[in-house]
Fold each of these.
Amino acid sequence: MTLPHSSRLGCKRPAFTLIEVMIAGGLLITGLSVVTMLAFRNSRQWQRLGHYQLALDELDRAVELLRNADPGQRQQVINDLRASSLAQDRLGECKLQAKVEEVNLNAADADDPRPATLVRLSFDWDRPGDPPPVQLSVWFAGAVE
């Protein structure tokens, strides 16, 4: 017994093939758009990471300047702190600031004062969302003159 042409197992109707191609194309376009979006987001994250690393390098440079300065010259170094030209070129408008606090580490014993200086360094630049600046604190024995 012979089956009619439309009921053979190996035969497909052309409309089903068109629907399959359209579904495959839709899945392909969706997949490509997701991959593209993730690639752009990843590149922005790498750029932000590079900016953050540059900010840390600037703070490290400021700490080294303060450590290498004589205790009598530290206040002058703090007053002269500026962001490097590399940071200004890559980050645009950026600020390197320092706040100095004089503290007594041995406040319980007034007869044996141990003066120390806490220098709080901060580095800020224009970023989306206006996050707080990157900060670093450094302790020095004695007072800043």
Amino acid sequence: TNRVAAERSLRRALRRLRPPESACIFSQNPSRWQLVFGMKTRYKATETLSLSMTPQKPIGRPPHDRKLGLCGVSLTMARLPRDDMKAFRCVRDELEPLVIKSGYLDDAPFVWVTIAIRFGVKNEQEPHYQRINRKYGDLPLAIEVDTHELLGASLESMTRVLRRAVLIALVHAGHKYQRPVQPLEALLQSIQSDFVSSQSNVA
């Protein structure tokens, strides 16, 4: 079978890495670091060979045409406004065309992006990453927002908070995967400046 053939090839590769019985690659009394170096070299060679022999599955496709998916996860016992689903839809419908038009997904290792908004106690400035889902083709991200900003918030205020968090996640992931993020970054900067000015007016 293929598995038996792969194991046989791996054993042959290891035998080629092993020196002959009469040869000695170190001195008669090898030091500890020499032994460690030899073990690390053999381990890396084995790992590289195993990865090269493992076939990579192609990236799958989602059962829909969405390019941006949003969801919410509550980390506190606070009760959010009833318009949270409307706010999610507003942010998705606003930013999804911008993601497509900017070429964010062109030649990317993922087909679409999913972002989980964690309603917690702080505003994070970078998202949490998970492995690209090879079955559905999405890049899973998660970012936390401060729930205190959403208590009793209107639909407009909640949309503003979610929009800022989603843009932070998209821009950060775009830099990581070398995606074009100029339109998203420009929108984020304008939102950040408006947020700072509103906070100063309140103070």
Amino acid sequence: MRRWPRRVARVGTIAMVVLAGPALWAGTQVLDADRPAQTEPATGGPAFGVAPERSVSQWCESRVESVTCLASEQGAQAVVIHPQRNSRGLVVWDPGGPGLGLPDADVPLDLIVPAAIQDFDVLLMVEPWVYRPPSTPCRRVAFDGNPRDACALELLATREEAVTSAIRLAEAQLDTDLVGAYLQSFGATRMQGLLMPGGAVQPDWAVVQSPAPPRGTSALSLLRQRSDATVGTLTRGCATPACRTDRERVLDRWTRNGIGTEATGREIALGVIALSTLPSDNRQVLDEVGAALDSGQISRSLAGRLRRLGRTYELRGANEVNPSLVAIWADTCPWYTSWRKVADQREPLMRAFAWVFRGCSDGRAPLRGDARITMPMLVLNSTDDAVAPSELQQRWLDLATRAVEIEGRGHLWRDPQRAAQVARWVADQGPGEESP
């Protein structure tokens, strides 16, 4: 029988930032309530890679009214975010990207947890690099070298056995049961094992929002579609095929040759890839880039903005790999295939993607080809999504036997009407009533 615990209402807010990882990979929750209006382009999340200054336990002690921290025997650490009223059970949430960092900024709870699961205890795995950063040799690896050797021992992935251990610990400590999973972007991929039949623990239902493609997908296919989506974003304002052809030609020249001394071709490529992750937020800057492509001339200031944008999501200090990038290499890349083929690409945008993911390699056996997800699942399929192209999101519908689809626009699903639909679907999965 399910235990629906009665919990004293908790007060206060949780202070954390969901790390989107490089904009080239994933854009998850945007915590932009205090962002100055378009001083810099939006990239799917705030600045990331905050080095841990305190342990996870110290961080939790300062927020004891709104969170519970768990450290399992497996060595995994997790945070349970409590609702402001009685909980309806436990939901595992993975926001995508490299995971959860623990900076000091105070962020209201309703800007962090998706609205549909704010009445639940929400379990969030803490990315291991937060409390055990990669080694200095790994972080300082030459950017144009191969980091696999330097980072070979940095496989700090959130393993499925660690997730299972954290769930069981949360159930025991909070006297509750796992009822659901809410998985966003690449979080759907890395938590996919939780949804498949035969697992040690399994929720009753799942929501996958703007999901990256399932495990076993070709990384080459994924990044080609992302490259095409980036070009499509930059040519969207064209009224004629000739305009699109001309913009593509100028873009190819800039991303191959760079812009004089202002930016290298790779920096321009990374900048436009980052811009395309949230096109509606970045419309003004994208229009400026489009006008520059039409004229064949780019201003020094715009080239500088693209250069800074491309570098912001890659560097940590002087010539150091960002720890969250190492987390992506270790925790997400191995679920995809064909990374060596990605490294062989010659088109400028594909070369930029290959450089970012140069630490990625095939490494984990895919799930059984005939396995299907049998629990009720809501697939929030996003059109106009350059992070996880819609065609690849639809593969989840083929993987599930009881899937329901809702279509939206963009990677972040900000439409209040769509959010209300999701909340109703979650409520209908029941029982989910608060205990008397």
